[in-house]
Amino acid sequence: MNKEIENIVKDTDTHFEKLTKSIYGWSVKDGKCVPPKIIFPKPVVERIEYFAEEMENGLTFQGALEYIFARNEEHCKEECEQVMDWLPVSDGFKKWSDDYFSYSFKEAQVMLALIYGNYQVEADK
């Protein structure tokens, strides 16, 4: 039983460490700030890229963030479809984002990805 608890604690610590490094793990290279590289599952990258492209057509940063997470999907879809096609929230994205403990970290990761483009797709397991 104690071994199981130790494993849970270790997994939680590792997960939390990866999240924090993906946000706060900045470095300096050749005298310039380098944002941390964020690794997202494919469904997350699809939403980021879809709405980031629309930012070039006038979608605001806040609007992109709201549509990417779509906490109220029906409302977001309604608003979005007035000017562009809606990208439904996939089960893969929901699985990634529906973690209450790390939601604010994931929101920060997406913000950094929208601003700096510092992300890549997670390798298939």
TrEMBL record:
Protein name: Phage protein
Taxonomic placement: Bacteria, Bacillati, Bacillota, Bacilli, Lactobacillales
Domain of life of the source: Bacteria
Organism whose genome encodes this protein: Lactiplantibacillus mudanjiangensis
